[in-house]
Amino acid sequence: MRHGKYPFVIGFLFAPVTLYVVFVIAPYAQAFQISMTNWRGLSAPQWVGFDNYRRLLDDGSFWKAVQHHGVLLLALPLITIAIALFFSFLLNVGGKSSGGQRQGVWGAKFYRVVFFFPQVLAVAIIAVLFQMVYRPNESGLINGVLMKLGFDPVLFLIRPNLALWSIIAVLVWQAVGFYVVLFSAGMASIPGEIYEAAEMDGATKVTLFFRVTLPLLWDTLQVAWVYLGIAAFDAFAIVAVLSVDGGGPDGATTVLAMEIYRNAFVYSKYGYASAMGVALFFLTLTFAALTLRLTKRESVEY
Amino acid sequence: MSITPEHPAELDRRTVLRRAAAVGMLATPAIGLLSACATSSGDEENEQVGGGTKSATNPLGAKEDAPIEVVIFNGGYGEKYATDVHEPLYKKAFPKSEVKHQATQAVSTVLQPRFAGGNPPEFVNNSGEKFLDFGALVNDGQLQDLTELWDAPSVDDASKKVRDTVIPGVVEQGMFNTADGGRKPFVLYYVSTVYGIWYSGKLFKDNGWTAPTNWEQFKALCEQIKAKGITPYGYAGANAAYYQWNVILTQAAKIGGTDVLKNIDNLEDGAWKQDAVKQAAEAWAEIGAKYSDKSFEGLKHTDVQLRQNQGKVAFYPSGDWLENEQKKDTPAGFTYQLMPVPGLTASDKLPATAIRAAGGEGYFVSSKSKNPRGGMEYMRQMLSKAGARGFTETVGAATVVPAGSEGFQFPPGVASAQAALKAAGKDVFNMLFDNWYKELDTEARTATNELMFGRIKADAFVERIQKRADAIKKDSSVTKFKR
């Protein structure tokens, strides 16, 4: 007798689905609704149709933020994945082989733990930490040393064309550890015989990396790319805490979440901020769909 | 025996249903939340308590036994002045009433949902980085009209109206246009704030420098200070650029008269492009280029203030809360001193002593709270001599009630600010656009950093702020104010 099955399933799904609908789906849907109003956060909103979206079109800071997401979208995954791959290759298969088993470089176990450290820290702490690192005068970590050596201080967060890259460096620094671990796990599942066979055929380490490791790691890379891409659409906490003048100088480091925050909680323009939020929602969705489609390729069976 | 459901269908049916029902009960309140969405408001109006009997001691007719809730911004002035001075005063006047106290550092975070839900507290100290937009509050009819309070007899002298016990301009400063075209006082600005440029009396005395009164002297002194290896002038670009636009606009007012600021506040066409503004911007851009430090753009206000305390910066623009804020870091004998922002030319419209002063720290009563009359009465108690005196004694700052600070021994910085205020006589002015239009404040801050750290010239400075001012003027969703 299986007559109890559906109530059972429904009983278990009911709570999580309800919670999800109330706390995730409903606010999303409401953001769409609010974005069509001129709500200022206090009394009942008035319907204004697509006015907010029209205004987005010639909002300089909005486009600046979108442009920065473009830069982030290219730079963050590329740099992070490149560094993480390099490190995890060294940690897993970069050393000597002993007894037919590939080894990591000397001290690999120690490095693996060290690389993961930034992941353990809260984002806000990392931002505050880098305030100290980037500080533009003699009490900054980097500039303190530079100035002792007689160089001019580097104005990391102040020079408009350096500021965004300083922020990206922090994002990469924070993300690398996680992807080292992720790729390490992927590499560990690549059978040692393949490496052995390739080595017997005279493959160098570089060839090993590009001809064996990379193709067999493709699925993991794809996941990493999507994760990092979505992270590139965020970056709010680091920008909010680290940048000068909230996304400055003159909007040189601003991101969409920063503009949403400013419009909602500084200017009390909740309707307009919601319109930006909706735009961000679609940007993220488009990115994820595109990436999954573009990187679709037969994964190698082994 | 384990009861892992390897065969789920074999679970007793009644148990399953019971469990499902239990889960359902847990989830039901959540469904209630669905209907109470973020924007709902107004449909559940707060039930207000009636008035009490009006009498000589209760001219506003607050209900004697109705509770009031007080929300204080826990910032530069702390919350002690409320818990130790004002709340006991109210309790004393209305022993049967209960005063609920709450302090926060993020006013809008705590209160925005309360306003949206139609359940705001009676009395709010709306200040700090996250204060609620006054314009939006006025627009929504959330603020109690304070006309009755200002016309009520004062606590100390029944023959005097409350409005006559405060320094001139304070009632005016808290006035906003209403949706029906009127103009009413909604906000009480309580703390007397004097703005200017601060220096260390000790540093100047040790070096034989005196505070300059005109532009030539100021530049000459900057040159001397620079030769000593001290940064002559600086403000913090990372989060306090408005300290600097304040200086530029103060000088602009001196050059062209107070109408310059009035035009800016009223969003008049071309207000930012007035000659006086451009001249002042040019003058200060030169100071930024020659006598400041590029790294200050990346520093927070506390960093630069600390450097001044350490004798590495000579002049720093700020308001007279500075001395109290820096109490912990100021070395003994530092002696904060204020000088008015110097004028630019001999033909300036205002004298060198002219100064920007205003009521600081905004307080309001929520019109849609349960007991708005109680909130107003709380304000009346605050504005009494005892209330003002208690505030001054607790935080060391002067209030807008002169009787409260009479004979009080202020620390040297505030004392110099009060002396400068006295010397200015009738040449005291203020600007309001940053409170009215926060977007304009943001733009002015950004543009000021661009100007002072040498990325744009004065022309571009006035141009870009004017552009934003025009955009705000055209934006129908922003309530406009006039003075």
TrEMBL record, chain A:
Its membrane topology: Multi-pass membrane protein
Ranges for domain ABC transmembrane type-1: 66-291
A Gene Ontology biological process term: transmembrane transport
Stated name of the protein: N-acetylglucosamine ABC transporter membrane protein /chitobiose ABC transporter membrane protein
Localization (cell): Cell membrane
InterPro entries documented for this protein: ABC_transporter_permease (IPR051393), MetI-like (IPR000515), MetI-like_sf (IPR035906)
Family statement drawn from the similarity comment of this UniProt entry: Belongs to the binding-protein-dependent transport system permease family.
Keyword tags: Cell membrane, Membrane, Transmembrane, Transmembrane helix, Transport
